[in-house]
User: Fold Zinc finger protein 112 from Araneus ventricosus.
Amino acid sequence: MEESLTKHSLAHPKEKDECEICEMKDHLCVHTKEKPHVCGVCGKQFNQISSLKIHLRSHKKRKPHVCEVCAKPFSERGSLTAHVRIHRNEKPYVCEVCSKAFTQLCQLKTHLRTHTKEKPYVCEVCSKAFSVKGSLAGHLRTHTKEKPYVCVVCVKAFTERGNLAKHLRTHTKEKPYVCDFCSKAFTQLSNIKKHLRTHTKETPYICEICGKAFAERGNLISHLRIHGNERPYVCEVCSKAFTQLCHLKTHLRTHTKEKPYVCEVCSKAFSVKGSLAGHLRTHTKEKPYVCVVCVKAFTERGNLAKHLRTHTKEKPYVCEVCSKAFTQLGNLKKHLRTHTKETPYICEICGKAFAERGNLIAHLRIHSNEKPYVCEVCGKAFTQSCNLKAHLRTHPKKSLTCVKSVTNHSR
Assistant:
């Protein structure tokens, strides 16, 4: 037996490294996760030169069937036939459930699983299931930390080939997906699909709890957190929690005082992009949101929603302390401070604190000596609107009417 082992050991070249981890030969890269051998064609990395050589054959494979429209080559005629349908916009495979059509039969089969909820591809590590085999392959790399697809421009690595292809367009600036409605171009297919719904007004993602529909799946996922009262995004400064990451990012600007969205007309800055959009309409006088009850128009959708409650008498915001209900969230927040005695708005000049932002703004006018509210009768000016209203009562209505009537009579 010893003689057989000796003969066998001579088959291994002596100059090769011996692995100190498991005492096997010639595979240190497996342990170090080092992949020094990179494919010059697609950027995929390998830990052994032999694996790279095998992979290179996939690029050298003969592809005699070439598309006459875009010159893309294929190794099989069937693949070319399926590809040509993309140019002709031919979709012969139709879903019997929702009538969605596809260019290839395999695409229809994959799509049908969205109806049957079938997920036959299961991860052996964490038991997560997938409807598409390729999705499982990509998921497995999240466990192995393998990122075989490397960008030849900036060396950024990816777990999936498709993600590398998307990333490469950030370098090439290529936008192959063009909207048929407005000709806007996109780097990714998913982005044009989202964009198309702005034209079609399609909202395919529906909440099973309240029936609210959304154009994007991500928005539905965020919405579901409202029902579950789940708030995974927490502010590190004040511990306030949010259902969406974008809400946390917007909130952080209240701490940093950052206002990146600037009006090109008057230079007023905003922390939220939507606020700038609404503000711009004050310059254009555009009021696209119209009440169906009284035809009153608004510059912002949110203001219309608030206004509609004056008709419906709906008060969805209820105080947990005293059960008082409000039509607007802002009013509930103000009211809650009557219970908590919280005064978050502090004057930077004298340190006086206020429960409401409007009261702080009015207070600051005392320091600036600004008096924007002027009496039309006697010209006296005030820092607050309520002070002007109180002052107007000092002018007798009768005398004002008398003056008006005398003037009319003299004419």
Notes: The longest strand covers residues 37-38. The first helix runs from residue 2 to 10. The two ends are 132 Å apart (CA to CA). The mean pLDDT is 83.
